[in-house]
Design brief:
The complex is a heterodimer of chains A (111) and B (112). With 111 residues, chain A is mainly beta. Chain A has strands spanning 5-7, 10-14, 19-24, 32-37, 44-49, 55-58, 61-65, 71-76, 85-92, 99-101, 105-110. In chain A, strand 6 and strand 7 (61-65) form a beta hairpin. With 112 residues, chain B is mainly beta. Helices cover 0% and strands 50% of the residues of chain B. In chain B, a hairpin with a 2-residue loop joins strand 5 and strand 6 (54-57). The chains are: A mainly beta (111), B mainly beta (112). The A-B interface holds A 1, 4, 31, 33, 35, 40-45, 48, 50, 88, 92, 94-96, 98-104 and B 4, 6, 33, 40-43, 45, 48, 56, 58-59, 90, 92, 99-106, 108.
Chain lengths: 111, 112
């Protein structure tokens, strides 16, 4: 089946630094969704992208839909301690057209 | 407040017992989903339902069962046939025509 490859797997950064992570696939998609999961909680939708080349912001978060439609990027500017969590990319590509997820990028922020 | 609720937050069961996890939503969403999450892994789809009284197996349905008697409710039963049931279980819902799924807070099941 289709797979979403996220990198890096984990990041340890200092508060105030910018963060960049990405998600790639060998398949072409029409949508990219980015979720954040706090420890012990359900994922929360951060940004949804619907058009190749689209750049969308949500506060300090910016996500881009890759022009090849096979990848997406998420950037966090001026990180703060509450940015800690796992960031998942997701897309509709499962065996029955359902949502599939990457394995996540775990972000740790040192105050 | 509109949202998805899952109960309980933590659940402990003895091996060999069936257990039912609750998922309720008041968002008037048509589709509902159950996912399983293991440490260091993404979410894997167990079952989903597009409308009341209809549901479909996901990628890892073996050892699980569901029902969808009401639009608001989609309970998941973890049966004794599930070989490795200890995991974090997440329920989600989606309104027809939208690509965006919204998740509940999750239930952590531990089988002793």
């Amino acid at each position: 089946g289709q797979q979403l490859n996220q990198s890096p797997q984990s990041m340890f950064i200092q508060e105030g630094e910018d963060v960049s992570m990405n998600c790639t696939s060998s398949s072409i998609f029409n949508t990219w969704l980015w979720y954040k999961q706090d420890p012990g909680e359900g994922p929360v939708l951060l940004i949804a992208l619907y058009k190749a080349g689209e750049l969308t912001s949500n506060g300090r978060l910016t996500a881009q839909f890759g022009i090849t439609r096979k990848d997406s990027f998420l950037n966090i500017s001026a990180s703060i301690p509450s940015d800690v969590g796992i960031y998942f990319c997701s897309n509709y590509g499962g065996s029955q057209g359902n949502l599939i997820f990457g394995k996540g990028t775990k972000l740790s922020v040192k105050p | 407040d509109g949202g998805i609720t899952q109960s309980p937050k933590y659940l402990f069961r003895k091996e060999g017992q069936n257990v039912t996890l609750s998922c309720e939503q008041n968002l008037n969403h048509d589709a509902m989903y159950w996912y399983r999450q293991d440490p260091g892994q993404g979410l894997r789809l167990i079952y989903y339902s597009q409308i009341v009284n209809d549901f479909q197996k996901g990628d890892i349905a073996e050892g699980y069962s569901v029902s969808r008697e009401k639009k608001e409710s989609f309970p998941l039963t973890v049966t004794s046939a599930q070989k490795n049931p200890t995991a974090f279980y997440l329920c989600a819902s989606r309104i027809t025509g939208s690509n965006e799924q919204f998740f509940g807070p999750g239930t952590r099941l531990t089988v002793l």
